[in-house]
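Following up on my earlier thread - several people asked me to post the actual chain instead of describing it. Fair enough. Here it is, all 342 residues.
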Amino acid sequence: MQKKIPGSEIIHCEQPDIVKIENIITLHQDLPNSLSYASDKSYLKNALECKATVVMLPKELGEKVNRPTLLVPNVDFALIEILNLYFPPEKPKGERGEWLVIKPGAEIGENTNLGNFVSIGENTKIGKNCIISDGVKIGRNVRIGDDARIGPNCVLFDGVRIGDRFTCFGNTTIGGDGFRFVESNRIQYKIPQVGSVWIGDDVEIGSNTSIDRGGIDDTVIDDGTKMDNDVQIAHNVKIGKGVIVAGATAIAGSAVIEDYCKISGACAIADHITLPSGTMVAGGSGLRNTPPKADLYAGWDWNLTIREFQKFRANLKHMLSLNLIVRRIKDLEEKLGIPDKK
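Reply from S.P.:
Thanks for posting it. Predicted structure:
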């Protein structure tokens, strides 16, 4: 099995155009006929000292090495090609598991795999070349495009619509009720949630994530968006194209996340606010108001940019001595005869 990576070059090897690789390893492992890699110069020392047969590096570092090296224009993209070569994705073959429930009117595309204990509701349409894993529950009138990968025990409620090349991992729920109640005499009355969820093409969702259906219109996840594990998307949220949402983040109802935003882990985004296109949110932050412009924001409430938040943290320790500072100022005012403004 041979593959030429576009723009690549092999240096300091016995055969200048061919390198034999049987294992892909990290810089700390030791296996024969192995390839390891470093994506930038911060790992160059480790790459030079590692025990891999060949190390893959960016081309600009080629002059700094004297060991067998595969030089490539971009290490990450080259790694994608290599890993897909050695660990090719499963190809569906139209296999059917046991204990299936397929309701009348459901349509299953060519070559789509259905695992054990899969349930598919009335009038649902699933595209071709999909893999539906064990224990998946798909409701009525659902639409799933081609080449989808749905992990074990996922639930897709009625009316959910999903584009092509969709991936979600185990135990994720799409289209459950949004969380909305109205109180009267200390009794909570549920407001019916009659919208659904619309998901575009090339979307990936991690495990244990929940995307609620809209109250009346749909919750929307647009093309190319990627979500980590344990993410909560509330009802009527609109997420644009190419958005990244890291794990343990919650986005409250009717928030709008415009295209190409990046939200780090354990963030909280308040309801009805808008993140401008390209906004980034640092890990553990909470935003309660719409940021004035696209920037990197950090903190817990104030929509501070990362630079403002760093200044705040630098001064935070002085706040612990605030009472002492106030007393010293009052003592000085008394000595100088400055009257108390109270």
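Residues 101-306 form a domain with the UDP N-Acetylglucosamine Acyltransferase; domain 1 fold (CATH 2.160.10.10). That should answer part of your original question.
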